[in-house]
Amino acid sequence: MFGSYTIKDIAKALGLSTSTVSRALNGSYEIGAETKKLVLEYAEKVNYRPNPIALSLKEQKSHSIGVVVCEVANNYFSQAINGIESIAYNSGYHVIITQTHESAAREATNVQHLLSRHVDGLLVSVSASTTDITPYQYLHDKGFPIVFFDRVAQAVNTHKITANNIKGAFDLTEHLIANGFTRIAHITSSRNLLISSERLEGYKEALQKYNLPVQPEYIKHCENGGMIQDEVEMALQELMTLPERPQALISTSDRITTTCIPIIKRMGFKIPDDVAFAGFTNSDVSESFDPPLTVLRQPAFQMGQMATELLIKTIESKRPIYEYQNELVDTELIVRKSSLKLA
Amino acid sequence: MFGSYTIKDIAKALGLSTSTVSRALNGSYEIGAETKKLVLEYAEKVNYRPNPIALSLKEQKSHSIGVVVCEVANNYFSQAINGIESIAYNSGYHVIITQTHESAAREATNVQHLLSRHVDGLLVSVSASTTDITPYQYLHDKGFPIVFFDRVAQAVNTHKITANNIKGAFDLTEHLIANGFTRIAHITSSRNLLISSERLEGYKEALQKYNLPVQPEYIKHCENGGMIQDEVEMALQELMTLPERPQALISTSDRITTTCIPIIKRMGFKIPDDVAFAGFTNSDVSESFDPPLTVLRQPAFQMGQMATELLIKTIESKRPIYEYQNELVDTELIVRKSSLKLA
DNA sequence: TAAAACTATGCAATCGTTCCCGAAGTGCAT
DNA sequence: ATGCACTTCGGGAACGATTGCATAGTTTTA
Q: At what angle do helices A254-266 and A229-240 cross, to 10 degrees?
């Protein structure tokens, strides 16, 4: 606080020692009732608030958690951060957010930076270009609390919160198949990302269930996670000029989904008449799209909350933790016009 | 850092005192060349990083700035936060974000919370329901650095970054008038907000310039800033059942703009045939809307950057500042189909 | 040659808090 | 009356870093 009182001020004002004041404030049993009352009342009067910085130094805990995401200006992540903040705030932690912009190098320096700030734990969603996860492994081996959410580093055996990506992509694909589409293309993010392969997996499973062929030329990866407009454009270009053009597209990344729509239109295709579309996104305006978008929505807010709860529990755990949770949360398929039944 | 070295460790390892090590690290001239080299090399070797918490305690500076916004999951604010982070990160500050959800009470506790965390300054965009700005006035009078952005507390004489709201709303309105609309309604946020009255002002100016009447029944305020679906629905309901129904609507708040579209459609009106629409929003998918939305875009990222630069300059200023900047940044009108010329 | 000046380093206080340890005071049993 | 336990409180170290001042050693200067 500004011009705030310290324990020393209170001690001086009351003619007590700092130790006594500290103990009275912390409700220690070895302080006399009147003294305690005196201190408490005075502290209340001057609106005493312990200095969190001094506490951090003493306790060797910063009461802050570091967050690593690709960008905040993203539907999924801004909602997840909302969830993260809500839990952290109520637990007395503050949140330091860093953005990778899908760069592995940036991610590495962000982690360094967060560590140098002595965060008590890390909440991370790796970037699309991250391949080296040894820093996380190293930290985790040393007992440093890390929780991955959404984009997890599979090899690191720690807490993870992910959407049920396989089922989500399966549902999305099955929905298109049910609507009569057989040639369904799949546009996804970087191969490095587990979410990409899981979502691809779900897509393949659905095709196989309905005895449809999995055609490699129908599968496109955007290695920069859609951060570069050109890579999405290129993928669409290649797909839509195929001899056997796909009848439907599914996109399995938030940014790619929203990027696709104007490109498809600019190419002169009508959705869903020329090509149907459905994709993963947490945009809350997908209903207002032209056409209204069929989307697969992840519970971003809840995922942020769950990850934060787990992280804080890990941080505050007295004994080291060796049992790690791997939470799988359900997605929500919202069917709209963009994936309309084939005439 | 994890298992990180302290100055004390270095001192012990090198048989020096902590003062010498500290001075060597800070390049003090009064340290012998070899000693300095020795310390520097050892520090490099063990990857020494000064403990920011200890530094904060010593310097009485937390190197953190508090941010008060209504919500992160909002196009404008997530982009602004992106700008804030970018500057803060490079200046060695970290950012603590708090959300008001448009509640004045929540805002007050957020500010309290940030102060108790000893932030070095505040970046604030007040909530839609905030009327009491005395806490800000009090802090500012005490010399505490505050920069307002977007939603400013007019009465507090400090740095402010705002979009040119009057001109923005004027441009938007003039554009509709130029397209042949004369009965233009205005849906805006809370009356408490200066941005609301400025945008209303720009709207009125445009009407007056073209000799069109300013009709009070065409002006609707959403006191909760569009956080409540019902208030937007109610406003639209009242407008669209007016004997002389408006031909066009302008919305001057990001959230209200995106909320309006599905409601208007659900009411059975086609845009722009039954009613044209244009609004303030920083959504980056407004092009994909049905119909593509005519929008007024604020340079959110830059505004975040400017505000943060100003704040940090104020924080780090040696002498107290009495000259406050009031930056006005230009908006961008993007014309699309939703405001199409009246047939 | 002795004093002055300068160099290079160490000591200790400080920031705000906690906590170990010691000590004074009281009450009670022996 | 003496010892012991218990209650209640204070002293001071510690967390990690900076910094004014002291000090020891060396060099310069009168």
A: 60
